[in-house]
Amino acid sequence: MAKTILDIIGNTPLIESKTLNTNPNVTLLFKMEGHNPGGSVKDRAALNMIREGMEKGSITKKSKLIEATSGNTGIALAMIAGIYGLDIELVMPENSTKERVQTMRAYGAQVTLTPSDIGIEGARDYAEAKVKKEGYLMLNQFANEDNWKAHYKTTGPEIWRDTHGEITHFVSAMGTTGTIMGTSTFLKEQNKKIQIVGVQPTDDSSIPGIRKWPVEYLPKIFDPKKVDQVIEVSTEEAMQMAKRLAKEEGVFSGMSSGGATVAALKLAASLEKGTIVSIICDRGDRYLSSNLFD
């Protein structure tokens, strides 16, 4: 029996696509990360970063934590910091959906909104300035090894176990890249032939949760050698697929999950046979105030 909410992070279900995937020789499985208590895959990394920091002594009850986020990491950090009695300030662009902001505040976090025209890069700059000038401690999901190690410890092993080692391809959106880095590391140790496919937006597209970072902001945890192929997806493709996921598969998720599914379906159509696992990184209810489902 679970003792706390933290004990039900992970072990999310795999479900098979029965409608969108039309290749009868390919199994497409969705890893349903919205089933985590904070509603996204980021619960895993947030828990590992905070727990490891506390065990190492770099995070204490006196720490003033700060983190820039586009949303899901912030929600996860707010939830877990609150459980541990830690103070945290979360910095995000002002065009973030109100559901995300309200959820973080409900968990007890201080939320600071930065101008939307400077994006998540501007939020990162703001957080880094407070670290330098005011003694804040940044978890720094973009450079924190405990981000990707969360997926090495949990996501990868779960996928290997639940597919009985039959997975041939893994598909994930790339934001901080923690999910794809950790899962790739584990799966490649089990079978080097497993193909790791990352998803990025096209140059003219903006998809929350998926980024093509400028060189100076590229996550330090990212290792391109751990990704075998990158598939680019447009904003329109990602939006339409998020709608189709909800309507045709009953999978209610955000735009980044739509983008990952577009890539997974393109991959499935190109294969003679295989078993693909694609990450559905969150739930759609935190996008209802946006135009995603209009």
TrEMBL record:
Its cofactor is pyridoxal 5'-phosphate. Pfam families: PALP (PF00291). Signal peptide: none annotated. GO terms for molecular function: cysteine synthase activity. This is Cysteine synthase. It comes from the Bacteria. Belongs to the cysteine synthase/cystathionine beta-synthase family.
